[in-house]
């Protein structure tokens, strides 16, 4: 059996998913195939970099790989969001003196060591004395002394070199700007037209930001991921999780706007809240940062990835490591090795279930919980879930069962989205019309995809009438027979 044939049937034996960012180092079809074979389950298209032609070529290459390997692959289009930046300087840069004064104003004249334009009028008038402005990922820290509609006078808590168009973070105020810029709207239209499965919304501050993006997506079958990277989002976390389809712990900007020691407990809180809601949660940013330049990570980075896996995150993400680094394939392979090792740990199942995820008072949740209980009691080779929308698979995944989950759906879009769901191996297949057909197909697909042999027991979970979203009401335990082996061979 070749490596290529193996990935066609191998459910990897890993429950946490790997999301790899595409960039100059990885957008070629040859490298994308290497990343898939190394362990990537989904790919992130970063709309902050590159142009639509680059992104279209990468998306087409991913869809070709999907067809080649008969494996649904999720594509997440990550919108840039309203990134705030300073204007330009006379000499391209200037030095802000430590403890000195510095002015941000609306004058478009190139700046110097005393002032620079801040081309965001919405910030003037909302800033108050004592609030902070962080420039260039927090390398320069300014504290507001006074502010009006045209000028913000600051004291430099931490000075340094500042250059053209450096980013500005405003951690202490809610910025009255929409989560979607005109560029984001164009990028969103492009992503929906070219078949993205997930849209990631950057710099979410309030539930209304999710609603705005949802309105633009309309009736398209695309999932929406809210990136948590602003302190203001933490205050409204439950409402944001309720409206989004998934959550990303975007530790980059979150770590700029908060003190570094505040981020780890917040990461655990966000992961736990998302899991309780049954929404996929991705931990992202700087997970294997040193592998941008080195073929091996630091021990601290390995522990960081491992902790996210132990916490039960649905997916872990590579950013520059796979997008622009010198070792993209090795980065994916390393993340796969770390996750697989953690999941082999005898204490993993206990730790990943330490969080209590109480089922809602619905038949669907009760049956999903029963799947875990049965699999803990009886030797079960797979939980086979028939779903059209993916909601049943999310309910089962929320319980973090020790048994693999085989998701069978008539919708390729649902199968692709499920590529970011913990423990799920999705297959797009024809719909079923009867109980007997469901049982037969469940057995055959389990055999075909390596989830059992003759004598193996399967849990089959579905809803009657078949094809009706949200109607999960049937749980059946079946045994794979010799007849099914014969039919599979045919």
List keywords for this structure.
Pyruvate Kinase, Chain: A, domain 1; disordered N terminus; alpha/beta; eight-stranded parallel beta barrel; 37% helix; seven-stranded mixed β-sheet
Can you offer a commentary on this structure?
The chain is of the alpha/beta class and 490 residues long. The protein has three domains: 3-82 and 178-352, Alpha-Beta Barrel (TIM Barrel), CATH 3.20.20; 84-169, PK beta-barrel domain-like (M1 Pyruvate Kinase, Domain 3, Beta Barrel); 363-489, Pyruvate Kinase, Chain: A, domain 1 (3-Layer(aba) Sandwich). Helix content is 37%, strand content 22%. The chain has 18 helices and 22 strands. The strands form four sheets. The chain has an eight-stranded parallel barrel, surrounded by eight helices. Strands 4-12-8-9-10-6-7 form a seven-stranded mixed β-sheet, with helices on one face. Strand 21 (457-463) and strand 22 (472-479) form a beta hairpin. Helix 2 runs parallel beside helix 12, helix 10 (299-310) packs across helix 12 (328-344) and helix 14 (363-377) crosses helix 15 (391-398). The longest helix is centred in the first third of the chain and has 18 residues, at 52-69. It is elongated. The two termini are 19 Å apart.
């Amino acid at each position: 059996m070749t490596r290529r044939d193996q990935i066609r049937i191998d459910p990897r034996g890993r429950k946490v998913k790997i999301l790899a960012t595409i960039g100059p180092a990885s957008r070629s079809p040859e490298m994308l195939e290497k990343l898939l074979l190394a362990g990537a389950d989904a790919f992130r298209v970063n709309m902050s970099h590159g142009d639509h032609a680059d992104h279209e070529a990468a998306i087409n290459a991913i869809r070709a790989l999907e067809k080649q390997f008969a494996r649904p692959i999720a594509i997440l289009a990550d919108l840039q969001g309203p990134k705030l930046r300073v204007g330009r300087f006379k000499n391209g840069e200037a030095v802000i003196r430590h403890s000195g004064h510095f002015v941000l104003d609306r004058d478009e004249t190139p700046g110097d060591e005393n002032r620079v334009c801040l081309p965001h009028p919405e910030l003037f008038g909302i800033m108050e004395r004592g609030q902070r402005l962080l420039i260039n990922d927090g390398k320069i820290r300014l504290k507001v002394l006074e502010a009006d509609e045209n000028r913000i006078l600051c004291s430099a808590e931490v000075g340094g070199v500042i250059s053209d168009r450096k980013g500005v973070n405003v951690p202490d105020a809610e910025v009255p700007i929409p989560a979607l810029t005109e560029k984001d709207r164009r990028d969103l239209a492009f992503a929906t037209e070219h078949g993205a499965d997930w849209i990631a919304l950057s710099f979410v501050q309030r539930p209304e930001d999710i609603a705005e993006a949802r309105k633009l997506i309309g009736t398209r079958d695309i999932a929406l991921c809210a990136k948590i990277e602003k302190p203001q989002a933490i205050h409204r976390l439950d409402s944001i999780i309720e409206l989004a389809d998934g959550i990303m712990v975007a530790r980059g900007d979150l770590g700029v706007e908060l003190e570094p020691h505040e981020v780890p407990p917040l990461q655990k809180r966000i992961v736990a809240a998302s899991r309780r809601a049954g929404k996929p949660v991705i931990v992202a940013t700087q997970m294997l940062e040193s592998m941008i330049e080195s073929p091996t990570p630091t021990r601290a980075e390995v522990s960081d990835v491992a902790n996210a896996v132990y916490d039960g995150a649905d997916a872990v993400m590579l950013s520059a490591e796979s997008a622009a680094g010198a070792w993209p394939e090795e980065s994916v392979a390393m993340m796969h090795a770390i996750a697989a090792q953690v999941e082999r740990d005898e204490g993993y199942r206990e730790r990943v279930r330490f969080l209590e995820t109480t089922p809602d008072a619905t038949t669907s949740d009760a049956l999903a919980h029963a799947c875990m209980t049965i699999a803990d009691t009886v030797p079960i080779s797979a939980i086979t879930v028939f779903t059209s929308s993916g909601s049943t698979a999310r309910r089962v995944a929320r319980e973090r069962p020790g048994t693999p989950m085989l998701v069978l759906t008539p919708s390729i879009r649902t199968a692709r989205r499920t590529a970011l769901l913990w423990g799920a191996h999705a297959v797009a297949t024809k719909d079923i019309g009867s109980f007997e057909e469901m049982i037969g197909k469940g057995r055959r697909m389990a055999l075909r995809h390596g989830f059992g042999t003759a004598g193996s027991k399967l849990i089959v979970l579905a809803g009657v009438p078949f094809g009706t979203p949200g109607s999960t009401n049937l749980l059946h335990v079946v045994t794979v027979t010799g007849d099914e082996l014969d039919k599979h061979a045919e």
